[in-house]
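Tokens for chain A. Residues wanted.
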């Protein structure tokens, strides 16, 4: 869905190829309470910062957590919407609010319900790699 996609810049008409690269806990890199999701946009880095409070709020509201996969999809959905709405696609970092994270997350989940799938990450060399779920005592309940 949003780990590798194309979007057209509203102002320039340029085709932007956006590819997910990594999720990084921002406390380690810039002392921020966020998760930074990196995309390459036409081979230039772009970061979408998701505040950690969004994970807390999602858990409070639904009882469910935001996984790494969902964080990447949410950031990609936000990036695509920003470019389509005419935001500056040349900026290197954008910060989402908690409400924006939850809105885009809900849009991702609604889209996944329609298509019956959320792709797995990571994407290496253009192909999605298989990941396996290892059940643990805490995950089985």
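Reply:
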């Amino acid at each position: 869905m949003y780990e590798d996609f194309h979007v057209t810049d509203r102002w320039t008409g340029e085709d932007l190829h956006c590819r997910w690269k990594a999720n990084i806990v921002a406390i380690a890199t810039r002392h921020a309470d966020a998760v930074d999701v990196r995309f390459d946009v036409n081979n230039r880095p772009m970061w979408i910062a998701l505040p950690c409070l969004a994970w807390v709020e999602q858990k409070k509201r639904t009882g469910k957590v935001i996984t790494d996969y969902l964080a990447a999809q949410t950031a990609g959905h936000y990036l695509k919407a920003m470019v389509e709405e005419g935001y500056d696609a040349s900026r290197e970092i954008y910060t989402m609010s908690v409400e924006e994270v939850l809105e885009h997350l809900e849009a991702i989940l609604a889209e996944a319900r329609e298509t019956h799938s959320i792709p797995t990450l990571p994407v290496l060399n253009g192909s999605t790699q298989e990941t396996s779920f290892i059940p643990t005592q805490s995950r089985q309940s």
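Residues 4-116 form one domain. Strands lie at 4-8, 15-25, 34-41, 44-51, 93-95, 123-124, 127-128.
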